[in-house]
Design brief:
The complex is a heterodimer of chains A (293) and B (263). Chain A is mainly α. Chain A folds into 2 domains: 47 residues, no CATH class; 228 residues, MetI-like fold (Orthogonal Bundle), CATH 1.10.3720. In chain A, α13 packs antiparallel against α14. Chain A starts with a helix and ends with a helix. Chain B has 263 residues and is mainly alpha-helical. Chain B is built from 11 helices and no strands. The longest helix of chain B is centred in the N-terminal third of the chain and has 34 residues. Chain B is globular, with a radius of gyration of 22 Å. Classes of the chains: A mainly alpha (293), B mainly alpha (263). At the A-B interface, α1, α3, α5, α6 and α7 of A face α1, α3, α4, α5 and α6 of B.
Chain lengths: 293, 263
């Protein structure tokens, strides 16, 4: 929102130069200020209001209560676990797609891309069907003799983590892939010719060059998974309350707007911090890349 | 890369793809199930769940509402977003990058927070109509996708062509329409597809803005999953998956799939 406030005064010099093209941004800017920025500002404002004017009671209630502190920690650790899982699986997978030849690359890409376009609700629903007592996973476990009776898997934290990684994995693979695809394989060969071991070549050449993709993936997966609502509420429900679930409950069931808006402000702060940190890192990486190569 | 490295990467990719595809593929056999539970392996073969989709009014009207809102909000965001993108690329506005970031930022912010903020703001100015609230909100949801793809296309476009068209007697709007639009059509198509899907699939923002008579498809789906889950949902999901695949194949023909990855 600082960006929004700053741009209000910015177009003026362009008009004075008679540059009418700059005015084309006005409809979109106006729309987004009124329908997007102002509501968020109002939300922050109302999170700091009590019955008698200014009050931080909503925040005090959340931060002073073990239950709500646990909820915040639940959301953050869910975000961390999901991001780590996506990075461990997605980062090497991006290399494999980028190294595939010809038409294979398009096919593999499509297989990663398709799940991104399928509704989150449909995917989570499919995941829940698989993990039922009479579902595919138990069928396979029993058939392979890995279990002697159906296991309870739904409504466990592990099934939630797996479902979250399932939903957000493409958001990690695609940015990594788009950076890794541009890397010149001859760089690694050059490092090898100069006597670098395979590990050394990776850690000193390939990994640093692929970092912009990894940072972008981590940023988007973390901020989306911290705020996820559909997947946690379908796969685990009240047993693992996240900030989004508390917010929904505060507004829809409890009618406790003070609690809801304070929780919303905290979640918004987390997301904005992640966005700022990501873009700061990206700029640093770009500068470093520009000066060293 | 060493052989170990290559093997690790390929194993990760195969695991990732199987993992990503599993919940999507598992729905399809379940939708042809004869029984009313989601057993695996499914029993018998029947199309009765597909038959039932047509008889559930709530689902049909939710489908219609979601399609309307997605189409109208995508069209609005296309117009507003493209104009803004032209201004950012051409207008030499100081802080153009900040404007682009601002217009694309709803993508990275928690949807639930947006929904709550809009609910409070709309109610404060006396807007209680669910349809209008949804449309206003979904333009914000779709804007980032348009901004990202159209900006990327525009930065590759040679604006000298627009000037050439104007010297040849076109007005500025006509020059944009006749020269710019056809040239950045791939950006429009992939941006619009993403925007449409984002709106059609949006749950967290819509959640606060719907009412009993105006429910979007995701809201209706989640309601049904929570209230009365039966294989009708699997049948509907299968229909949605097939429609998505068709849309992707169409876009691949028109644009090429990999161009769309630049979200």
């Amino acid at each position: 929102m600082t960006a929004a406030a700053a741009t209000l005064s910015l177009p003026a010099p362009a008009w004075r130069r008679g540059d009418m093209t700059a005015m084309l941004a006005l409809p979109a800017m106006g729309y987004m200020l009124v329908v997007f920025a102002v509501p968020l500002a109002l939300l922050l404002w109302s999170s700091m209001r009590g019955e008698a004017g200014f009050s931080l009671a909503g925040y005090a209630r959340i931060l002073g209560d073990d239950y709500y502190r646990q909820v915040i920690w639940n959301s953050l650790s869910l975000g961390l676990i999901t991001t780590a899982g996506c990075a461990i699986l997605g980062y090497p997978a991006a290399f494999a797609i980028a190294r595939a030849r010809g038409y294979w690359q398009v096919v593999l890409f499509a297989l990663v891309f398709l799940p991104l376009t399928v509704s989150i609700i449909v995917k989570t629903f499919g995941w829940a069907i698989m993990l039922r007592r009479d579902g595919l996973v138990n069928f396979a476990l029993l058939g392979l003799g890995l279990a002697d009776r159906p296991q309870r898997m739904l409504f466990t934290p592990e099934s939630l983590y797996a479902g979250m990684i399932n939903v957000f994995l493409p958001f990690m693979i695609l940015p990594c892939y788009s950076v890794v695809r541009m890397l010149d394989p001859r760089l690694t060969e050059a490092a090898a010719t100069l006597g670098a071991s395979a590990w050394h070549a990776f850690s000193r050449v390939t990994f640093p060059l692929s970092l912009p993709g990894l940072v972008a993936g981590i940023g988007i997966v973390f901020s989306l998974s911290c705020a996820a609502y559909v997947t946690p509420s379908l796969l685990i429900g009240e047993r693992y309350m996240t900030m989004s679930q508390v917010m929904a409950k505060a507004y829809l069931n409890l009618r406790d707007w003070q609690l809801g808006s304070a929780m919303a402000a905290i979640l918004l702060a987390v997301a904005v911090l992640v966005v700022l940190a990501t873009s700061w890192l990206q700029r640093r990486l770009a500068r470093r890349g520009g000066s060293s190569s | 890369m060493t052989r170990l490295g290559v093997a690790t990467c390929w194993t990760a990719l195969v695991v990732a793809i199987l993992f990503l595809m599993a919940p999507i593929i598992v729905i399809i056999p379940v939708s042809f199930n004869e029984g009313s539970v989601f057993r695996f392996p499914p029993v018998g073969f029947s199309l009765k769940w597909y038959e039932r989709i047509r008889n559930i009014d709530a689902i049909l009207s939710a489908l219609a509402l979601s399609a309307q809102i997605a189409a109208l909000s995508t069209a609005t965001a296309l117009v507003l977003g493209t104009l803004a993108a032209i201004a950012i690329v051409r207008g030499r506005i100081p802080g153009g990058e900040a404007i682009a970031t601002f217009l694309a930022s709803p993508l990275m912010l928690p949807g639930l927070v947006l929904g709550i903020g809009m609910l409070q703001a709309f109610r404060a100015i006396g807007l209680f109509d669910a349809w209008a609230s949804l449309l206003l909100a979904h333009v914000v949801v779709t804007m980032p996708f348009i901004m990202r793809t159209v900006l990327a296309s525009l930065s590759l476009f040679d604006f000298a062509m627009v000037d050439a068209a104007r010297t040849l007697g076109c007005s500025y709007p006509a020059a944009l329409w006749k020269v710019l639009v056809p040239n950045i059509l791939p950006g429009f198509i992939s941006g619009a597809l993403f925007a449409f899907i984002a709106s059609f699939d949006n749950y967290p923002v819509s959640m606060f803005l719907t009412d009993v008579r105006n429910k979007t498809l995701p809201i209706q789906l989640l309601n049904t999953i929570e209230m009365s889950p039966d294989p009708t949902l699997a049948a509907l999901s299968t229909v949605l998956i097939v429609l998505t695949i068709l849309a992707l194949v169409l876009c691949d023909r028109l644009v090429g799939l990999r161009r769309m990855a630049s979200i």
